[in-house]
Amino acid sequence: MEENKKEDFFPQDDMPVEGATEEEAARSSEPLEELAAEGAIEEGAAEEVETAEGPAVAVAEASSDESAPAERKNRRMEKIGRVTSDKMQKTVVVRVERQVQHPKYRRYIRRRSKFMAHDELGARIGDTVRIVETRPMSARKRWRVTEIIQRAR
User: Fold this and answer.
1) Residue 123: which of 99, 102, 92 has the closest Cα?
2) Where is 61: in which H helix or E strand?
3) Per-residue model confidence (pLDDT) at position 153
4) What is the pLDDT of residues 12-45, one digit of tens each?
5) Is the pLDDT of residue 55 over 90?
6) Cα(59)–Cα(47) distance, rounded to whole angstroms?
7) Which CATH superfamily is domain 78-150 in?
């Protein structure tokens, strides 16, 4: 009796009932065909599944590889700066400048940051380089030189 009350309370008009005619079963799958035609779901993604209550329609989810964009979500941070020191072996100090608006006076101020970067390319003082965030290589070195954009004159 409780099940009957439950069914009355939650009508399921779109799901075919056991012993339903073929017309009723066909009507229940029409919305899925319309969605496939509109491109909301892929064709062939909907399939009928037999459950304890009767046949039901299940929509397969697209795999994450297909729906993922060409670029990765979590890209590594990149910065462009000038080499200020190359005294260490395979390490350079890169100064990155950025402009920040002053909160009160609204004038742009130059801010500088220094990063120690691993250098396999042989950058020299004055070169403009692109550095990319990477795993920690030492206590202060967490960046890697990926490209020498412009050599010093």
Assistant:
1) 92
2) none
3) 86
4) 555 555 555 655 555 555 555 555 555 555 544 4
5) no
6) 7
7) Nucleic acid-binding proteins (2.40.50.140)
Helix (H) or strand (E) run with residue 130 in it? strand 128-133
Per-residue tokens: 39: 């491109």
8 Å CB contact between 127 and 141: no
Distance CA 115, CA 118 (A): 10
pTM: 0.53
- How far apart CA 114 and CA 118 sit, in angstroms, is 13
- Structure tokens belonging to residue 131: 């550095």
Domain spans, the chain: 2-67, 78-150
Q: Tokens 């967490």: give the residue.
A: 142
Q: Which amino acid is at 105?
A: Y
CB 36 within 8 A of CB 43: yes
